[in-house]
């Protein structure tokens, strides 16, 4: 069982001194009941922010895929160098987008064809929608095998401007169908 998590850093350090929430991976061996030590994956900015939780999934060949969460910055993506092995190295973390989207709250699954699917909250502003106000959408991205992350697409636009949260969950069934559930909440 592969597990990812984020940890707090030195709370006395200046925010500029810490690049973000450090994300780690570990493997729990069900046969021995032992949890292997943590392996560092990367940072999800900003530091000491509970929004920056990572997510992990596995493809059909056993390669582990991680998206390191952020709060309002592009997520970071990396994958294991060996199948079902959290300790033999990882690719360098790369942004899921060059467009600098404001991403928060990772939802990640791997499809039957090994396409990675990602849902998240994404901030928008300066558009005609909602009279140019700032608003938060529930957005989607995917990464087909051997390709870069595709541009993000809005799945759900809010009925109101300003703060929104979706409390979303992403899952996939045995046939490969994606399901997104959410509860919308706004301060308005």
Q: Secondary structure elements and their pairing?
A:
Elements: E1 2-6, E2 21-29, E3 34-35, E4 39-44, E5 55-58, E6 64-68, E7 71-73, E8 76-79, E9 94-95, E10 103-110, E11 116-124, E12 135-143, E13 153-156, E14 164-165, E15 169-172, E16 178-181, E17 185-186
Antiparallel strand pairs: 1-2, 2-3, 2-4, 5-6, 6-8, 7-10, 8-9, 10-11, 11-12, 12-13, 14-17, 15-16
Q: Structural class of the secondary structure composition?
A: mainly beta
Give the number of DSSP strands. 17
The CA-CA distance between the termini, in Å, is 41 Å
Strand content: 35-45%
Strand/helix succession: EEEEEEEEEEEEEEEEE
Rounded average pLDDT: 94
- Report the biggest beta sheet as strand number plus sense, adding barrel if it closes: 5 strands, antiparallel
Q: Regarding quaternary structure, how should these chains be classified?
A: single chain
Cα shape: globular
Compute the number of helices: 0
- Taking all Cα atoms into account, the compactness measure Rg is 17 Å
């Amino acid at each position: 069982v592969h597990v990812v998590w984020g940890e707090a850093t030195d709370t006395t350090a200046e925010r500029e001194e810490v690049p973000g929430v450090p994300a780690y991976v570990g493997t729990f061996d069900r046969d021995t009941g032992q949890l292997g030590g943590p392996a560092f994956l990367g940072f999800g900015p900003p530091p000491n922010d509970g929004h920056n939780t990572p997510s992990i999934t596995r493809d059909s060949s056993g390669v582990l895929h991680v998206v390191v969460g952020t709060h309002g910055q592009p997520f970071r993506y990396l994958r294991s160098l060996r199948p079902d092995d959290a300790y033999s190295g990882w690719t360098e973390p790369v942004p899921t987008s060059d467009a600098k989207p404001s991403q928060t709250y990772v939802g990640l699954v791997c499809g039957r064809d090994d396409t990675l699917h990602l849902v998240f909250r994404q901030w928008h502003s300066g558009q005609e929608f909602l009279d140019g106000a700032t608003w938060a959408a529930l957005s989607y991205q995917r990464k087909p095998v051997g390709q870069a992350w595709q541009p993000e697409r809005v799945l759900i636009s809010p009925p109101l401007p300003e703060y929104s949260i979706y409390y979303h969950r992403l899952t996939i069934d045995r046939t490969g169908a994606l399901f997104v559930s959410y509860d919308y909440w706004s301060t308005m």
